[in-house]
Amino acid sequence: MKALFISGSPRKRSNTDYLLEITRSVTGGEFIKLSDYEINPCSSCRTCLKLKECVVKDDMELIYPMLFESDVIVLGSPVYFNNVSAQMKAFMDRTWCIRGRLRNKIGGAIAVGRRYGIESAITAINAFFLKHEMIPANRGVCGIAFEEGEIQNDQEAINAARELGYRIKELGKITGCL
Predict the structure, then answer these.
(1) Most buried among 57, 93, 126, 127, using CB within 10 Å?
(2) HSE value, Cβ hemisphere, 13 Å, CA-based, for 101
């Protein structure tokens, strides 16, 4: 089973990364930070409807193959204004051109915020999975933190991140990718 963990946090050593790494410790897989890539927003040119590929040339060209090769895609984001980060949103929007090509992959959602907006960010990530006809592993992991390292005090989120990994492995067996 090939798993890809994608962090939408622009912070180094972020709380989001911490939870993603806990899940990854259960499943294995590759970890990337969107802030390490140049990803421009979707220009809504709709050319991808004809060409079946995005005409915006940037680092998404490096990420698309990783998505196609993965059986599992786990998205993690801090909460910004009751939603995912700008980095995560740009990434999500730029996958419009690959609709149908992520079908039946397993998806995992992780969001970290300050007690409000977390559910909205989880909903946005799960909507991404459903738009791509992916299989959400569960409802998502909600972590409560703001300052660097604060997530280490949220034992419930740490346990949930670990459980997400076990659920992904269970779904991997069911879907035949493990």
Answers:
(1) 126
(2) 14
Pull the structure tokens for residue 63: 């990420």
CATH, range 3-175: 3.40.50.360
Q: Which two tokens stand for residue 14?
A: 């972020």
Q: Long-range contacts made by residues 17-20, C-beta under 8 angstroms, separation at least 24? A: 17/76, 18/149, 18/151, 18/152, 19/76, 19/110, 19/112, 19/141, 19/143, 19/151, 19/157, 19/158, 19/161, 20/74, 20/76, 20/110, 20/161
Residue 176, both tokens: 């035949």
Coil, strand or helix: which one is 49? Answer: helix
User: Which of 149-176 are b and which e, b meaning 16 or more Cβ less than 10 Å from the residue's Cβ?
Assistant: eebeebeebbebbbbbbebbbebbeeee
Tens of each residue's pLDDT in the chain, 178 residues: 999 999 999 999 999 999 999 999 999 999 999 999 999 999 999 999 888 889 999 999 999 999 999 999 999 999 999 999 999 999 999 999 999 999 999 999 999 999 889 999 999 999 999 999 999 999 999 999 999 999 999 999 999 999 999 999 999 999 988 7
